[in-house]
Each structure stands twice: as structure tokens, then as C-alpha cells.
Amino acid sequence: MNVSDALASRITCRAFLPDPVREETVREIVDKARYAPSGGNLQPWHLFALSGNALADLLADVAEKMLETPRGEVPEYRVYPQDLKDPYEARRFKCGEDLYASIGIERADKRGRIAQFQRNFKFFGAPVGLFVYLDRTMGPPQWADTGMFLQSIMLVAREYGLHTCPQEAWAQWHKTVSSHLNPPADWMLFCGMGLGYMDKEAQVNTLRTDRASVDEIATFKFR
Description:
By secondary structure, the protein is of the alpha+beta class. The chain is 40% helix and 13% strand. The two termini are 35 Å apart.
């Protein structure tokens, strides 16, 4: 698979098959993704990969705590700006509406929307859960570097016939996740990512989000 095909076929997968993914395969994906660029070659990321009992125990812990605190813990960072302006707010709103429409959940169905959101914390059934940490002293440039590392994982996964679901929502459960992984105190949970084989029969996986045109996002001055 070439890079263009990997980019075109990559989606945020929200329904996975239970088929296991071998540790050797995950290691190979991470081994290839570690060549992602980073300023000054800091390589500021650290990844935990969980499957089997280790993942099941963590998800069960989160599910139990969600009964008392359904909104999770106080996240260490804000995923979106507090006053998100257009066109960004409009894009985010449409993405959410398109997602729920794809699985027949009406806007008035608050319970259904909450249930779908909480599936984030089951990794949408993925057999592998990845958690990526950053040193707290890192700044926006290193956050951008970590994004390139994550993108590299997502693209290499396509080479193996796998799909992914990057989830900053996991920042809401950083304390619980860290209690299972025991990272150093100066590491911050940046995001999680589900990894596995896509359930091609799941309606939610038919969603393809809009993309702005080239002329909307780029200016060319070649003369």
C-alpha cells in the first residue's frame, strides 16, 4: 500500500472486530512509526500498548468509575479552545451531527448520545489500546511532533490491514489510566488510540467526514 492509499483509506474507526492483533505486529508498527520527525530529534513521546487482561482490567476500572463520574476526571488540558470560532466550530458541529446521523441517533436522544460517547472508553471494541504520554515540560512544538508520531502509527497500521481510532477523550481519565500504567510523575497522558481490524458491517464506519478544499486551506504563489 502506498502512502496516498493509506491516507485515503484511513478513517477514525468506531467499531472493531474482536479478532486479536499479535504483539509482534504492534511492535513492527511502532518500530516503523518511530522514524516520525521531531524538532531537535527530541522524540518526546512514550507509548504504552495494552491487550488481553491488561486492557480488560483497565477498561473495567474505567467503566466502574463512570457510574459515579460519567464525565470522567478533570483533564489536564483542554482538547478544543474555549471559544471555538467558525469555520472550526461549524466543522466540529457537523462532524458530530453526521456521526450520530450515521447510526440513527436523534439530537433529542441524549441517552443514546451519551452511550455512544462512552464507547470511547471501551476503545470501540478494539483488541489493542495504545496510550501516548508526553513529558509535562514539553510545549506546543513537541505536541505537534507527537501528532506526527501518531499519524505515522495510523498510516503504517493501514499497511497491515488494520484501522485506528485516535482518542484525546482519554485525557478525561488520565488518573485512572496512570494508576494502571504507573508512568513517571512528570509524564502527561496525551491521548489513547484503538487499534484493530475494522468491522466493515458496522454502520458507524460508513461515515466519511468532509474536508475543506485545497483552495480553502492553501495559498499558492508560484509567480
